[in-house]
Specification:
The chain is an alpha/beta fold. The protein is 30% helix and 23% strand. The longest helix has 17 residues, at 214-230. Residues 55-241 form the Dihydroorotase catalytic domain.
């Protein structure tokens, strides 16, 4: 039995209730026992460990709904141990790992393996997302019921879209019967073709084949029709353009059980950041125009975009040190997701509570988790944050095994000082 811990002199942020006040928070038996202005160090029991937050923010731990953790089969890029250490350093207390591993997460035994590995080597909560189709091939659906029983939190084919509408309709129907959440990557592979960046004037000037936003919106429109037909809970993994937001808005107005996410990279950068063929900015889906980026940020503030994800996709040096068209897609992001989001808060484009809602409260609710809030009886999954701390990002200091970050050398303001999972501190910055 561990002694109670009291976070004193904190700025408490709860996106569910709108709480934003100075006070304390008491943790006991892995749960939040009490919180508010009346919770102070001088009234705590004798055996309580006092943590003076010195006015720093204390909010619910983040839930990242889209991350690649490497195991099994790609441990040279990332492991559960390194991914969860990076998550803890970024204030992420729950990580949903993608199924595009080797072998793919398409069997209950692999789900069980991941959960055991996470228990043995991870420092934050790991929730496996199982494959929709066997081997991620898009042709034969997996056993959704057995996978969910084994512990799969959601179902997706990762960065692959299911092009066959008939197969996807059967998947949605089957998933509905098990109340399973389907998370789909919405890009028509036939329209994507060989495109490597956003289609437009810039791609023409750079001499790179483009990927048009229509590849996203056409697939998304199709999916909304199938959701209307089946009633399955559906989540668009990553929307990237203004036109997709119109599709999502219409679907929600119709009352369909849909939600959507956006990556922190698409909220932070636009196609111009590719500059002189910088491969750390080669993503899937690609970075879009500045107009699209601003539309995404406004949609997060409005709540139309439900969640913000890291889309953490570690790649080794050999895969990124290539000509732009040949380099692998993806960037790491679980450690920088919250801090990058603070840029939008400092620019007054998004409130701090809105940021926590998109990174903690709403993903928790979509996944059916008990966290994502500061409330009595809720899990003590917490992040302490120094909003004003300035620093320059050095990739060598990041905890991820790979270092392919688009924030290389970026000047940032704000730093995670402590992270707690289930009442245990799993990350503590040296300056905390």
């Amino acid at each position: 039995m561990t002694a109670p811990k009291l976070f004193a002199n904190a700025r408490l942020i709860d996106p569910l209730t709108g709480r934003d006040e100075q006070g304390g928070l008491l943790v006991h038996h892995g749960l939040i026992a009490d919180l508010g202005p009346s919770v102070k160090a001088d009234a705590a029991p004798d055996d309580t460990e006092i943590i003076d937050c010195q006015g720093r923010v204390l909010g619910p731990g983040l839930v990242d709904m889209r991350a690649f953790v490497g195991e099994p089969g790609a441990e040279h890029r990332e492991t559960i141990a390194t991914a969860t250490q990076a998550a803890a350093a970024g204030g992420v207390t729950t990580l949903v790992c993608m199924p595009d591993t080797n072998p793919a997460i398409d069997d209950p035994a692999i789900v069980d393996f991941l959960l055991r590995r996470a228990r043995d080597t991870g420092v934050v909560r790991i929730l496996p997302a199982a494959a929709l189709t066997r081997g991620l091939a898009g042709t034969e659906m997996t056993e959704v019921g057995l996978l969910k029983e084994a512990g799969a939190a959601a179902f997706t084919d990762g960065a692959r879209s299911i092009r066959n509408a008939g197969i996807f309709r059967r998947i949605l129907t089957y998933a509905r019967d098990f109340d399973a959440l389907v998370m789909h990557h919405t890009e028509d592979p036939d329209l994507v073709g060989s495109g490597v960046m956003n289609a437009g004037e810039l791609s023409s000037r750079l001499g790179l084949p483009g990927r048009h936003t229509a590849a996203e919106t056409i697939m998304l429109e199709r999916d909304m029709r199938l959701v209307e037909l089946t009633g399955c809970r559906y989540h668009a993994a990553s929307v990237t353009c203004r036109a997709s937001l119109d599709v999502i808005r219409r679907a929600k107005e119709m009352g369909l059980p849909v939600s959507c996410g956006a990556t922190i990279n698409h909220l932070s950068f636009n196609e111009g950041d590719i500059g002189d063929y910088r491969t750390f900015f080669k993503l899937s889906p690609p970075l879009r125009s500045e107009d699209d980026r601003q539309a995404l940020v406004a949609a997060v503030a409005e709540g139309l975009i439900d969640v913000v994800v890291s889309d953490h996709n570690p790649q080794d040096v050999d895969q990124k040190r290539q000509p732009f068209a040949e380099a692998a897609d993806g960037a790491i992001g679980v450690e920088t997701m919250l801090i990058a989001g603070l840029r939008l808060v400092h620019a007054e484009m998004l409130s701090l509570a809105g940021l926590f809602a998109a990174m903690s409260a709403r993903p928790s609710r979509r996944l059916g988790l008990a966290g994502g809030k500061l409330a009595k009886g809720a899990p003590a999954d917490l992040v302490e944050l120094d909003l004003g701390a300035p620093w320059v990002l050095d990739p060598a200091q990041l905890k991820s095994r790979s270092k392919n970050t688009p924030f290389d050398g970026a000047r940032l303001q704000g730093r995670v000082t402590r992270t707690m999972v289930g009442g245990s501190i799993v990350h503590e910055a040296s300056s905390a």
